[in-house]
Amino acid sequence: MDLVIRNGTVATASDTFKADIGITGGRVTAIAESLSGEREIDATGKLVLPGGIEAHCHIAQESATGGMTADDYRSGSISAAFGGNSCFVPFAAQHRGMGVIETLDLYDSRAEGASVIDYGYHLIVADPTEKALAEELPQAFARGVTSFKVFMTYDLMKIDDGQFLDILSVAKRHGALTMVHAENSGIIKWISDRLVAAGHTQPRYHAISHPAAAEAEAINRAITLARFVDAPLLIVHVSTPEGAGLVAKARLDGAKIFGETCPQYLFLTKEDLDRPGMEGAKFMCSPPVRDTATQEALWRHLQAGTFSVFSSDHAPYRFDASGKLSKGPDASFKQIANGMPGIALRLPLLFSEGVRGGRITLNQFVALGSTNAAKLYGMHPQKGTIAIGADADIAIWDPEETRTVTVEDQHDNMDYTPFEGRQVTGWPVTVLSRGEAVIEGGKLVAEPGRGRFVARARPDFTGHPGTRTPELDPGWNFGAEIAP
Ligand code: DUC
Ligand code: ZN
Ligand code: ZN
To answer: Which one, of 313, 349, 317, 288, lies nearest residue 413 by Cα?
Structure first.
């Protein structure tokens, strides 16, 4: 064996056990009570976990209005690795007028030679032309991009309900997963316009302009559309108990509906948006952070299995004129980029508050941070678990190490962290990707460019039977033509 990780406590999404892990040719080739190899890592007192899979982050991505994220595939992947991730799946954003294949080629050129960990992309579809639907989405799927994200809000990104049904149907036909940013555009615009007209422009009004009702209405509509054509759908960044309840209900009904939430909704509140001056801009994301009762409700949904994935939604815009304050120091909340960094803190925060805090088990932590993403995004069992034949993507954690979060300790290109000053116990100390050390002894030891594109397969929807819409039954007169 090339490498053996000795004496650690191994945990997967289902089991926790003492074992040595043997690695040959970048894959796990032995799991046994005692192994020896050419090289050995002593993991005594440590946890040996599947490397995290960060499945929602914005890297080298420009917004529809042209603002570029502060992180590229080099800094974003390094930061992800320091946070215990061995794979990430940022977005490749199509903007109107761009072809899908042109979009993927662009992101290939951005990722090529830059990433220290393996990567894929979710395709953002903002311009579902006939060509995109008939030719390019199937080509994207064949190329290993097997998840498509759509927006129900933002004038330059949003799709209407008919376009949503088109995309859901194409995705379903090819076995892809659709993801959705679900907020009601009309409600947000209506209330935002009134707030700004009344001079209420500070960051705190961002939360007021994105009420829970806007999320609940859109999630309800998105689920209704997906269930109508019996297509799988993942609701990203769920921020309210109302939204989470809708996801839970649909899952209980057997629909192929999945949910994601993010650290900001568990650890921050709208009080943070009300910090002095423009400081609140650092905490602006969409949907917005809410309140402590919401945090408790979302924890319960994490415990109960409503959420399959827990992602950072790392959307790095610096607190300066290149990012949040590009429209000046007195910009209104409508002019401030939405998003905050957190790619390196997602797993430590969840471990510290979730596992050490007794809210979730270590196995749930592994499922939420890695295994479920691998399954939903078509990478399992190659990634997301520690099993014979799987890529040796492994994070070794010190469950006792306590650190205080500071921006100086981050490895992204940001000038702030919204989690500044927070005490966190449990940190990844070594991260392996395909058996190669990326982080060792708290240091980066891998070269940018070693990360490979992962051509993803069909997502695994086992255990989600789906729902039937009688009017779309192919046995009906018109069903055969219109059945998705
Ligand atoms: N949606 C995201 O997924 N991330 C950042 C901002 C947004 O609207
Ligand atoms: Zn979004
Ligand atoms: Zn996002």
So the answer is: 317
pLDDT at 297: 98
Strands of 211-280 (E only): list them: 233-235, 257-261
* Domains, the chain: 3-14+33-49+383-444 (2.30.40.10), 53-376 (3.20.20.140)
**pLDDT per position as a tens digit, 171-209:** 999 999 999 999 999 999 999 999 999 999 999 999 999
* C-alpha separations of 322 from 67, 233, 303, 327, 342 in Å: 8, 34, 39, 9, 19
Coil vs helix vs strand at 390: coil
- Position 471 scores a pLDDT of 81
315 C-beta closer than 6 A to ligand 1? yes
Please indicate whether residue 272, judged by its CB atom, sits closer than 6 Å to ligand 1.
no
Instruction: Specify the ligand 1 atom closest to the Cα of 315.
Output: 5
SS3 category, 370:
helix
* pLDDT for the residue 460: 87
How much distance in Å is there from the Cα of 476 to the middle of ligand 3?
40
Ligand minimally distant from the alpha carbon of residue 313:
3
For the CA of 56, the nearest atom of ligand 1: 3
Helix (H) or strand (E) holding 53: strand 52-57
What six digits make up the tokens of 21?
A: 């892990």
Peptide bond into 90 cis (omega under 30): no
DSSP for residue 310 = E
Distance CA 246, CA 264 (A): 20
- Extract the tokens encoding 19: 């074992």
Please report, for the chain, how many H helices and E strands are present, in that order: 16, 18
175 burial class (0-12, 13-18, 19+ CB within 10 angstroms)?
middle
Q: Both tokens of residue 376?
A: 């939903």
Task: Determine phi and psi for 63, rounding to 5 degrees.
Answer: -80, 175
| DSSP label at residue 218 | H
User: What integer pLDDT is reported at residue 462 of this predicted model?
Assistant: 87
Is the CB–ligand 1 distance for residue 181 below 6 Å? yes
Quote the CA–CA distance of 80 and 411 in Å, as a whole number: 9
Which residues does the chain have with pLDDT short of 70?
474-484
The answer to whether 336 and 279 have CB atoms below 8 angstroms apart is no
